[in-house]
Amino acid sequence: MLIYCDNAFSASAISMNAMALTPIILGFDAEDISEDAPDDVEGLDASAAHVANLLSTEPADSVGGFSMGAATALYSATCHVFARYGNRNPYPVNLSSVVGLSGWLPCSRILRNQLKESNETSARAATLPILLCHGPGDEVVAYKHGEKSARILSSAGFQNLTFRAYDGLGHYTIPEEMEDVCRWLTARLRLGGS
């Protein structure tokens, strides 16, 4: 599992497979995350390509992130479904699950307009497990963006999507949320011998 985190100025990818966690700086333009804002497809492609490269060394191809990292994870999910990046280069990773915490879906217009390209694309979307978590107290990425992302993904055919809201949660994580993520991942990735 690759976890992708960020702060206001940079983002880091952390391998959960490694004993020592090493942050790697990367990112994209996220000044305006509204649906009408221009999408930084070039920056998103670069972030998704870097994440795909990191995933190539992981035992299970799952990706998750917080805030901008969640946006990168969700963009990676769309690249997986289309089997290509936004620039049309092939996407090399077969994702098994995606987790997004306090984030949003970038390029949502592209997703809605292109998902019905083929039965294969629809099948990949329908079977990819996605967990989205958000709190109405988020002052950085408004809750409405997380909620709308879940609606767009569901209406685009992502049938294996779970959205969890946490009362009072701001732009941070809480133990209850992390326990839910662990339970969800354990069930999806068949961890713990079950």
What does this structure look like?
The chain has 194 residues and is α/β, with parallel strands linked by helices. The protein has one domain (2-189): 3-Layer(aba) Sandwich (Rossmann fold). The protein has 6 helices and 7 strands, in the order E-E-E-H-E-H-E-H-H-E-H-E-H. The protein has helices spanning 41-55, 68-82, 108-114, 119-127, 143-155, 175-189; strands at 2-6, 11-15, 25-26, 62-66, 97-101, 130-134, 161-165. The chain has a 7-stranded mixed sheet with strand order 3-2-1-4-5-6-7, sandwiched between helices. Helix 2 (68-82) runs antiparallel to helix 4 (119-127). The longest helix has 15 residues, at 41-55. Pfam families: Abhydrolase_2. This is Acyl- thioesterase 2-like. Residues 28-186 form the Phospholipase/carboxylesterase/thioesterase domain. GO terms for molecular function: hydrolase activity. InterPro entries: AB_hydrolase_fold, PLipase/COase/thioEstase.
Concise structural overview:
The protein has 194 residues and is an alpha/beta fold. It has six helices and seven strands.
Poorly predicted runs: 4-25
Task: Note the beta-strand portion.
Answer: 15-25%
Question: Mind describing the biggest β-sheet?
Answer: 7 strands, mixed
Give the % helix.
25-40%
Oligomer: single chain
Number of discrete domains: 1
Overall body shape: globular
Count of DSSP E strands?
7
Over the alpha carbons, how many angstroms does the gyration radius reach? Answer: 15 Å
The strand line-up of the biggest sheet is 3-2-1-4-5-6-7
The CATH class turns out to be: Alpha Beta
Q: Determine the CATH superfamily.
A: Alpha/Beta hydrolase fold, catalytic domain
How would you classify the helix and strand content by structural class? Answer: alpha/beta
CATH architecture, by name, is: 3-Layer(aba) Sandwich
InterPro entries: AB_hydrolase_fold, PLipase/COase/thioEstase
Pfam family, one: Abhydrolase_2
Protein name: Acyl- thioesterase 2-like
Organism: Olea europaea subsp. europaea
